[in-house]
């Protein structure tokens, strides 16, 4: 009679980067013959992958640990909050082990100690990696099967004053380009149609490795954003760049977008547009150059969609500086924009800055900012009415197929709602040409474009 598989419960909290960590750990558990179970009752041990980015995420993570302790009692904690073990031990002294983000080896050691893997001659045939933290196997996907996050580096060399990621995750550590390309290749072989490149700072990719050259498919590639994009462009699926820092060499990848080798999409957080506020944020302050660069990108690739995020109500932000930000929106005509009212994060150096903006003023500025951008986004989407757009179907919902065009990232941007999607027999993960017939400030509406 076959032996029962040791069973692990898994709770995954946090951002897409934490999700990638969860996928890696789940992959390794599966490779070693553990069964992943969906309830505390059925689990022999529970792993909680936590987030510690803002205070509400810390509270949510501590609650999740508490629930796992109460329901199961054998709990291993990993992820961002693991960087503050004393805080976890104070609330939940009984947890079995604590490790930080990306520390797959420690998680696996803790799981082995609590629940030794079962010897299985069939599973033992699965090739083992020499370094567990260096996995490049196809992951067990928590995201829908047809898109996958591809994490190219960890940590960040910048020190933006509102952010504590460098103190939690350390300086930039890039994965060698051949390893990333092999992982991407396997994901595509496993059915992935869209790769979402993520990191804390995608444009800095490889600087820590001095842009080391590696070989993939018989060709040399530098560990550098442009070469990585060229390699990914060989895979014949959609590749989308996230978290690109506004360095000049971002210009290098825009021609690849114009050639169709990379999606014409840049997620590039600008954060503000007043040079003084940007200096206080410890970010590049040459706003004229940013606008000039955006103009150049659009010359090279006229259809490029630019997504950005901004912080309003940063300490010391005056009415005039906020107006500068609104003027920037008018000039830059960005496609998609997210914004946050500044909120102090424990440990961030910006908390020591003078002249905090009152909460009511922050909220009022946030509302004005979003209203201004909504008009811009709506006009940008309206301009697509009457065109035919290549879309990737995410889900079927009644009569509708919910899809995304090349200009929409999953979770953060809008959708293309295909009115006759069910009737047309569409399925998630399928590409389809859609005739765009309507728009609002978030979404596009259309029908499958049938050839005559
Ligand atoms: S670039 Fe991003 S991750 Fe790095 S310090 Fe700035 S906000 Fe934080």
Automatic annotation (TrEMBL):
Catalytic activity as recorded in UniProt: L-aspartate(89)-[ribosomal protein uS12]-hydrogen + (sulfur carrier)-SH + AH2 + 2 S-adenosyl-L-methionine = 3-methylsulfanyl-L-aspartate(89)-[ribosomal protein uS12]-hydrogen + (sulfur carrier)-H + 5'-deoxyadenosine + L-methionine + A + S-adenosyl-L-homocysteine + 2 H(+)
Top EC class, one word: transferase
Compartment(s) where it occurs, according to its Swiss-Prot or TrEMBL record: Cytoplasm
Family: Belongs to the methylthiotransferase family. RimO subfamily.
Domain MTTase N-terminal: 6-116
Database matches in PANTHER family: RIBOSOMAL PROTEIN S12 METHYLTHIOTRANSFERASE RIMO, RIBOSOMAL PROTEIN US12 METHYLTHIOTRANSFERASE RIMO
Gene Ontology BP term (one): tRNA modification
Enzyme Commission designation: 2.8.4.4
Cellular component annotations (GO), alphabetically ordered: cytosol; ribosome
HAMAP family to which the protein is assigned, alphabetical: MTTase_RimO
Keyword Ribosomal protein set for record: yes
Domain Radical SAM core per the UniProt entry, residue ranges: 142-379
Residues that bind [4Fe-4S] cluster 1: 15, 51, 80
TRAM domain segment(s): 382-450
Residues given in the record as [4Fe-4S] cluster 2 binding sites: 156, 160, 163
Cross-referenced InterPro entries: Elp3/MiaA/NifB-like_rSAM, Methylthiotransferase, Methylthiotransferase_CS, Methylthiotransferase_N, Methylthiotransferase_N_sf, NA-bd_OB-fold, Ribosomal_uS12_MeSTrfase_RimO, rSAM
Organism: Vulcaniibacterium tengchongense
Protein name as it appears in the record: Ribosomal protein uS12 methylthiotransferase RimO
Function (record text): Catalyzes the methylthiolation of an aspartic acid residue of ribosomal protein uS12.
